[in-house]
Amino acid sequence: MPISILGISAFYHDSAAVLLQDGVIIAAAHEERFSRVKHDDKFPTHAVAYVLSEAGLSVSDLSAIAFYDKPLLKFERLLETYHAFAPQGLKSFLAAMPVWIKEKLFMKKMLWDEFGKIESGELSRKPPLLFPEHHLSHAASAFYPSPFDEAAILTIDGVGEWATTTIGKGVGKEISILREMPFPHSIGLLYSAFTYFLGFKVNSGEYKLMGLAPYGNPDGEAVPRYRQLILEHLVDLRDDGSVVLNMAYFDYATGMKMCHNQKWQVLFGLRKRESESELSQEYMDLALAIQQVTEEMVLRLAKTAREITGCKNLVMAGGVALNCVANGKLLRAGIFDKIWIQPAAGDAGGALGAAFAAHHIWHDQERTVNPNGDDAMRGSYLGPEFSDLTVQRLCRKHQAPARYFADFGELAANAAQLLSSGQIVGWCQGRMEWGPRALGARSILGDPRHPEMQKRLNLKIKYREGFRPFAPSVLAEDAGLYFELDTPSPYMLLVAPVLESRRTTPPAGYHSLAMYDRLYHLRSDLPAITHVDYSARIQTVHQQTNPRYWQLIKAFKELTGCGLVVNTSFNVRGEPIVCSPEDAYQCFMRTEMDYLVLGNYLFCKGEQPKWHEGGNWRERYELD
Q1: Distance (Å, rounded) from C-alpha 601 to C-alpha 64?
Q2: How far is residue 315 from each of residues 9, 27, 212, 297, 302, measured CA to CA in Å?
Q3: Could you tell me which of 442, 500, 495, 461 has the C-alpha nearest to residue 210?
Q4: Residue 524 gets which letter from DSSP?
Q5: How far, CA to CA in Å, does 522 sit from each of 102, 454, 506?
Q6: Which of 36, 89, 124, 232 falls between 20 and 30 A from 445, CA-CA?
Q7: Are the C-beta atoms of residues 253 and 187 closer than 8 Å to each other?
Q8: How do beta strands 494-497 and 595-598 pair?
């Protein structure tokens, strides 16, 4: 019998489930993709049911179940923190304790109750229930599926039980945690505090802060001044990358918000920005300042990891590992020969790490590294896929006309032609992606050469802030023709500069221009994917992991000479990435997308019946 292990993360944000069999990832999925609730934190009922169905298993058949952290240790941290800061935090304490006492202290019972619901009754057998520590789950998610037999391990996030950052070493099947940084001193929570102060949602808006940072003026006086204020008043950054935060400025340890707004206002001379309000240059400069500080922290931690492990390779996980700008600078710094980052680096990825830890540590199973240098993630295409029969049923349900292509090459050529003529195409193919990035299985695509594409995608399709950048999906073999990048980036976790030869000369005083004057300046011959600092967040597309997406881009190149397309996630702002053909068709009809490809079917918006929908979907996704 194979060793079958279910890994789950839940009850904070981004709940997820993963199934391993004999150390091979069978399936992995986020609960939000099924529930349609962004960052869903509830028990991952649908995701668990899905991953079990992929292997034809019941809960009772499992060898073990692994939860991604230790709830009792986390409870200990909460109690000790409230005690240390008393009498501060009484309101927060009174709000948090009933939930812990009624539910989370009885996590095992709560989990078994949920599993019983999935099995529709009593379990015939209860598998062992394991609770690896939070940062061990992150470390395991980074090391075990990586292509390295030996590597330094760096995990950076908000907080697990006590640890906020760890440095470890992986060799074969063994993981050793060598150093850790304790709560409340946290790089992730520092970054989240700025996310909050700049008017974005914590635990979901950090990538907006990262996208806003390049609009800061690197040549002005404000950015270095803000950076100095951060390092003098908010955080003591040590040479080894560890940090000590001045908790007089922060409220997250025991309070109901991230920082003390009044103190920050006095320090920076800025009010906390209200959500959706105007983004003045001062806020952009502050975003750049904290991004630069964060990059310096990551670089110092990486240098320390190299020194204490002696390893030439690095693996990373934790929410801060999704900061692809910092990742790109770390790669170019040359501290390590190679870097590999878990594509689901946040808490969802903890489910994968918990399962791997159970397999290699608790079950004491040996680990085999792929001899061809590939990782074990299979391109991160680990979610559900749907047949053409499902699409046929959708067509009947909605009386939706569509053209069927028996030859996928002909479909790819047609889609490439549409893209080249400026059309926006929804693309839903194969198994859904694992992780927060759309990687060409659930994507919205456009022509990167089109000067209006970035604006149109943001305002007419995604219904989101106009400053947000878009990523290129480039044929892996052609990446060097467009970007200063000499390593694969299949998971869209590295930012690199656009080649100088493709850039246009910026106008005089470029960094002093108003935000949208900079945004709509044509910076290269690929304006839709070139960010205001002449960089791009790159996905290299590999024929062996996503042959259909590769074939589409190849067809686009044969037609236009351009070996890349614009890729953004298939959703609107506030909506999870689509999972099923039904989700995709609804998003297609709600937006100003022109065409939709579902499997071997092509839908034209102009041919579809008028769309009717009960309820206000825009209100549900907070678009109104």
Answers
A1: 41
A2: 21, 22, 27, 16, 10
A3: 495
A4: B
A5: 57, 11, 9
A6: 36
A7: no
A8: unpaired
Q: Tell me how far apart the alpha carbons of residues 325 and 559 are, in angstroms, rounded to a whole number.
A: 32
Residue 484 tokens read as 């200063």
Q: How far apart are alpha carbons 450 and 155 in whole angstroms?
A: 39
* Dihedral angle of Cα 202, 203, 204, 206, to the nearest 10 degrees: 70
Domains and CATH numbers, the chain: 4-135+352-369 (3.30.420.40), 388-620 (3.90.870.20)
pLDDT (tens digit per residue) in 172-214? 999 999 999 999 999 999 999 999 999 999 988 999 999 999 9
CB < 8 Å & 24+ apart, contacts of 97-104: 100/75, 104/11, 104/71, 104/75
Max Cα-Cα span within the chain: 73
What is the spatial distance between Cα 398 and Cα 609, in angstroms, rounded to a whole number? 8
417-475: per-residue pLDDT in tens? 999 999 999 999 999 999 999 999 999 999 999 999 999 998 888 888 888 889 999 99
Confidence of residue 602 (pLDDT cuts 50, 70, 90): very high
- Using CA atoms, how far residue 620 sits from 233, 445, 509, in Å, is 40, 25, 42
What is the residue whose two structure tokens read 């980036």? 489
Task: Give the pair of three-digit tokens for residue 66.
Answer: 């692994």
In order of 97, 157, 258, 305, the CA distances from 184 in angstroms are 19, 12, 12, 21
Supply the DSSP string of 316-372, one letter for each residue.
EESGGGG-HHHHHHHHHHTSSSEEEE-TT-SHHHHHHHHHHHIIIIIS-------TT
Residues in Cβ contact with 140 at an 8 Å cutoff, skipping those fewer than 6 apart: 132, 175, 352, 353, 354, 356, 357, 360, 361
Q: Which two tokens stand for residue 117?
A: 């619901």
Residue 525, classed as helix, strand or coil, is: coil
Q: How many whole angstroms separate alpha carbon 40 and alpha carbon 47?
A: 11
56-60, 114-118, 265-269, 443-447: which has the minimum mean pLDDT? Answer: 114-118
Q: How far is CA 129 from the centre of its chain?
A: 27
Q: Please compute Rg for the chain using Cα positions.
A: 24
Residue listed under structure tokens 């999935």:
118
Give the residue among 481, 490, 500 at the shortest CA–CA distance from 567. Answer: 490
- State if pTM tops 0.90: yes
